[in-house]
Amino acid sequence: MILQRLVDIELEDAHGLLFGGGTPEEPKYGFGLDRDRSDDAVKLHLVVKAAFGDPVHITTIPTIFESTYPWTVGGLVAAIREARAVVATNRVQYCTECPVGVAMPVVVGMHTCMCCTMKGAFQI
Questions:
Q1: 67 and 100, same domain (yes or no)
Q2: What is the pLDDT of residues 48-104, one digit of tens each?
Q3: Which structural domain range is residue 67 located in?
């Protein structure tokens, strides 16, 4: 049912199914589910957004985790479990090499964000 709803939403909105957020007094995480067609197989794409409470569009909130899963009910269950684990363990860490005032999430398994990781890789 949820996977079919994602197909229906995709026809209406390019952002897929977006939900979450809280109030300024009690920020909550945001979530997005969409179809990923970056390769031959259709996959489920999960995005977890940083906790927010201000009345802004969820697409403007920094992404703290994302992954793809098989386009199956089992893939959907795995995505929900992983999203819950991200929130429950609050394993979100921010890059310490970014300029002051910039809060970019680190790459999973790394200690820096994607930009700083690439700067180091290319010695920029």
A1: no
A2: 888 777 777 788 888 888 899 988 888 888 999 999 888 877 655 677 777 665 667
A3: 2-92
